[in-house]
Every structure is written in structure tokens, then in C-alpha cells.
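Morning!

This is the sequence you dropped in the shared folder:
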Amino acid sequence: MDQVASTGRSCSSRPAMFVRACRALLELMQARRARSRVRCQLAAMTERELQDFGMSRSEIEHELRKPVRRK
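The structure's back. C-alpha cells below.
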């Protein structure tokens, strides 16, 4: 019995699933790096720069204390 008949689906879906999983992982890694860069930029800003776009140092400190995996 061939694999298509025994499972009802072809083997060609496995590579597609692998590609989707790799793309999702890549997107996750890119998002984490982008958040990390933004947090570093926020940490380096002066009080005046923070005031220019309406944020306080306490809001920045709260953001910096979050784990990297959180938005």
C-alpha cells in the first residue's frame, strides 16, 4: 500500500509544513530583535527626547523590565 492511500494525504505537505514553520520562526526572531533594538534606543534617550513624544522615564523603565519575549 502506498503512503497516499494509507494516510489519505500526500508526502508533499510535509515540506510545506516545514517551510511554514521555518518562516514563522524567522518572523518571531526578527520581531524579538526589533523589540530589543527599540528598547536599547529608548534606554539611551534623554528626558527631553522622551518628553518630545510624550513618554516618561517610568514608562520606559516599565518597558525595559519586560522579558524580551513580551511585546
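Headline: The chain has four helices and no strands.

More detail when I'm at my desk.
O.
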